[in-house]
Specification:
about 575 residues, alpha/beta, six-stranded mixed β-sheet, four-stranded antiparallel β-sheet, 12 strands, about 65% helix, binds adenosine-5'-diphosphate
Amino acid sequence: MLPVASLRQGMGFLVELLRPRWRRFAAVIVLHALAAASALAVPYIIGRVIDALGAGTTHRFIALAALAALGAYLAEGLLGKMVAVRTRLIGEEISAQVREDFIDRVTHLPLSRIESAGTGDLLARTTHDISLVQETVRDGVPRLLIGTVTTVTTYVLAVLVSPVLALSLFVTLPIVVMGARYYFRRSRHIYLWQTQSYSVLNTVAAETADFVGTVDSLDLGAARRDMMNRLVATHVFEGQHSGIRLRMRYYCFLLGGTLLPTVLVFAWGAYLTALGQVSVGAIVTVALYANQVRFPIATIIMWLDSFQVAAVAFARIVGVRLVAPDREPTGATPSGSAISARGVSYAYREGRPVLHDIDLDLVPGQTLAIVGPSGAGKSTLGRMLAGIHPPTEGTVTVGGVRLIDLTEDELHSQVVLVTQEHHVFVGSLAYNLRLARPGATDEELARALATVGATWVDDLPEGLDTRVGSGAHKVSPGQAQHIALARLVLLDPHTVVLDEATSMLDPGASRQLEASLARALAGRTVVAIAHRLSTAANADRVAVMEEGRITELGTHDDLVAKGGTYASLWATWNRQS
Ligand code: ADP
């Protein structure tokens, strides 16, 4: 799993988000307090009227009091509207920033971390967690803010009206606080369990969908469904059930703690009036406050509850920030385009290296074919040379600069890995091509397509603007390869590592695609991980890999003449074909 942020790290990020906006945030709090105070003026006026009636008063006083109450309501409405817009704006800004920061981090996560964590966890964070945080920040933060400010303002005003009477508002607070402590101490654990259960479920669902072909051919449908059902029963249901049970218990505390004060004000007030210490008007005012404060308190508790869920989701989102980058751009610029590996070792799992101390120099403009048995480490070496993974030991440099010292953009302008997977994203054809070079003009896109011989584009109904991908215009596998090659032309790296992509060069591949690939690669340094020895025979040099080491390196003719591993592979290959 990817890391989950601690409470402190989460708070740290929150402070980072709020700091540049603290003035506006403070203004919003003041406005909220004013709006709340306006609303609370009415019970006060009612109290004053009751006292005045007892003592004997004029019509004029009553009329003025009614006008004042009307004014207070109007002020509350106006202030409330002003502050609602402002609070919402801050909420939207923050949630946008969280989402942008998250997407930015996710798209730059080290590939090795994503591979080892599995895509399900990341998927759950990108979908479930981020929506939850966004909802909470949008609605929850404003409501929590209003609830807190209203509650505090009500307590302050109650104390101002009558400190002794206000006591009855506070005596039940311990019940509410104790209940909240009981609840929150247990709920974080439950919510973490709940969100993680979605990750597990997502992993299974994503895996089933991604490898639907395998599932079908091995007739695993029923088994996968059983697995999902079991997970729903053991993880999801259990998580939700214990959450609901805990919440029900807690609501009892909450209800008791907030209903009791209104009753207490009257009882305690009756006693105090008998002593001549408070007026009936004051009792009514404070009783109305006690009744009114129930709602903001319930809002706080309700949203604190959602906050617990969101805080866990937030911790998982902030967790993505904690993944250490596997490259630190130093600003160094390569002098030249020669790629060299020195003493390169790589281990997917600690202590289990699959590459051992490899030295290799690519010759600019030349093609190097890497051959060898399956599992020898060819793909892994290809990934090292393309800068996908930093080596565990040793260095890979381009023009004297380590690949991990370059920014990702800089790296991709130097060397690119092409695999057999050419995904076409849902969107226009132009969008799919601009992924490689965002600023490219339509002419540049058309030229790249022409370079790889993608003449079919001319027949598309809307040309470059035609929507492609699943659910839109269907592109054939050959066309998808054209798109991938056009992206390569747009990226225009001096070096290309072809992994599996060389199967395009297989005898079975169409001549046309072969020509497209040749044109896309013209003038570039090429590392071809060769699955067919015919590819190797056409390369300038051949490297033979066995058990994570390069055991032979030279031209095809030299290696055949040498009579080593390559020579026998070549002999076998020739016999077979
Ligand atoms: P080749 O391309 O020559 O078939 P690879 O580079 O794919 O070889 O694999 C070299 C070794 O590394 C193999 O033992 C393989 O099982 C292991 N390996 C490859 N990818 C991973 C991975 N993502 N995690 C762990 N081990 C891996």
